[in-house]
Predict the structure.
Amino acid sequence: MNNNNNKIIEVRNLVKRFGNFVANDNLSFDVYKGEIFGFLGANGAGKTTAIKILSGLSYPSSGKIMVAGYDVYKQRNKIKRSIGYMSQKFSLYEDLTVRENIHFYAGIYGLPFKQIQNRTNELIEELGIQEMANKMIADLPLGWRQKLAFSVAIFHKPKIVFLDEPTSGVDPITRRQFWDMIYRSAEKGITVFVTTHYMDEAEYCDRVSIMVDGKIEALDTPTKLKENFGVNLIEDVFIKLARK
Amino acid sequence: MNCIELNNINKSFGTIKALADINLNIKKSEFFGLIGPDGAGKTTLIRIITTLLIPDNGKVFINGISAFKNFKQMRKIIGYMPGKFSLYQDLSVEENLQFFATVFGTTIHENYHLIEDIYVRLEPFKNRRAGALSGGMKQKLALCCALIHKPEFLILDEPTTGVDAVSRQEFWEMLNRLKKEGITIVVSTPYMNEANQCDRVALIQKGKILQTDTPENIVASYSKKLYSLKSDKLYESYKLLEKFDKLSAVHLFGQELHLSTNNNQDTTKIVREFLDKHKIEVKISEIKPIIEDCFMDLMLNDE
């Protein structure tokens, strides 16, 4: 799968400075189509800065970066249309119903009304939440909220979805249902770019990068990372790198 | 000796039952963990223990004294670190600490030995406004402020949530040093593997305590047989095994599956034969459960 034609994110020498502070220090990496890519790092390592650049929300200071075939300097609007985004902190409008939230997001991405209606019904059925469809998001259990937020983030069939700590605080069974959804969308060809503080979740990813102080210090499959560092858990790899 | 005792605690918010019949005994100098996901009732329980919230019914005794009637007395011996950063953002690091010391009628100097380890790392920033600190630094300052009156009890609500793995480990190391000072510590966390840092834990889900014991005993009391399965076609195996009725549960576990069974069957053989029909080769071995296996098992039994 890892041939050049399949690159969906291409980052070469990405540098981002804020005054004298270098938040992203010469990052170079590729992400492939349909891959589940784990983007790990300590708080303040520069993950959010990099995600903002990759999702077309901020400009890099220098470097060549292509996302979904578009240039982050010149084609930011095209990038925004090609990606989905979900965060733990804010994902859905609490005072809108399930149905209204789906309509709202799909509308923003400019899907035709007829299509939105049909697909909304399909989605509600797929998630098995018919009886919750007209409830406010505020009344939904957290687990359902996160599953719905993910479905909404990929509703417009983006090429890449960015997930920023999507499972924080979610119970272990719902967390697994969430990963099952991630696997299913990756099988459909959606690339998943995910951050998490649960180190065991890194093991669900095809490849994992670990950022320390603005640099990517390791990038490989979870198995190879553990082998290379001679440890049994990704958590130990992370601690070895971040505590250096 | 039990120094925190909760008897039949119930608490509802409107129609939502946040806590149902909670009974809990925490011993002196114990390091006690409340383990559960968001919405389990951890924060409500902590607010009740810290006398900030009155339950609908049930009793709380701290050092044998009824906590709510004597809440002023209780607050002198409790140090509380809420889940949300609650210090004064526009005061400096030093001013915040000074403030909390004064409110509790003490001085930074008097109890400095308790916070010294932690505070030395904050000291270079002592003139910085608390609001301008990094997440890890805020957390350390909040801990110092909770400790400055030398409490008998330190109660922390999700101190490690959203914090990276390294800072989490450092935080647990700090708490372990405080335990050696004889402070009774109650800490909540959604990270199941952090249960192993505690002397005893209560596993909490949907307002109920599923089990209370030492992490070792919880793992030892797991009643099923548990297997790890590895395969190049892991997700495909998972989808097939989900529908395979000879197992009680199948869970994704990173690059493995965990299979559990009640039966005295040769699970290795049965699963291998089943997947062989789909031309999938697997490695299966019996394993010991971790807290997360136990938590999921208890959750499913409870439903």
